[in-house]
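Assemble and predict.
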Amino acid sequence: PEIIKTKEIRKVYRMGTEEVKALKSVSMCVNRGEYVAFMGPSGSGKSTLMNIIGCLDTPSSGQYILNSKDVSDMSEDELAEIRNKEIGFVFQTFNLLPRATCLENVALPLIYAGYNKTDREEKAFLSLKSVGLDDRIHHKPNELSGGQRQRVAIARALVNDPSIILADEPTGNLDSKTSYEIMDLFHVLHQKGNTIIMVTHEDDIAHYAHRIIRLRDGLIESDERNPNPTVVD
Ligand code: ADP
Ligand code: ADP
């Protein structure tokens, strides 16, 4: 079953009298449970496409169907609700609140979802446990290593049980050993049935994904199954 379907998505940015065609016509589908890497040179449209898939932005034309709902023309408020329910975001820079503990950071999305404090803490604890950080719940981000911070961010992305995990250069700020640990975690999430889409410009990171989509100049240049994904021991 398709979870993401884009039909001839175009995105034009207007800057004064100038137009930038960031996406020219992008059509693709992702099924539930797939693990996809987006690659492509800087400026090829990866962030623009990720922003649309993540409901942070809407296409200038074309259709985007997420979980059978047409989100192409939704209002800001409707998009915010879909985002909170359907998407777990993981960023290169972790985007954690520095003054909040791990537990508070992970519980944050649950405030908007309307859970009470006890339920929020219970769910946040279980999510931190699932990434192996149940012994760090009262630590603040600056008391953790980079890899641990990214695992907190992943726990936060998972806490609402989203349909899709969107990761933008998730290993971009990590050394290679820590990067592979994060890829091990993605591997486990994929095996549990999560749908994962990540942007990376590192070949060895992309090679963990089971499908690699390359963008160039606002178009899909290639879309290939990875017959031999890097296996985690
Ligand atoms: P954004 O956060 O707007 O998506 P980019 O993805 O363009 O920014 O860049 C994020 C970081 O990755 C930057 O430090 C950039 O220099 C680096 N980077 C982006 N694309 C490539 C690439 N194809 N090869 C090497 N480094 C890249
Ligand atoms: P990538 O993530 O692959 O580096 P982007 O999606 O960030 O590519 O950018 C695609 C093109 O759109 C680039 O030419 C970029 O300069 C342009 N672009 C991206 N965001 C904006 C914006 N907010 N306003 C104007 N142009 C933009």
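The two ends are 29 Å apart (CA to CA).
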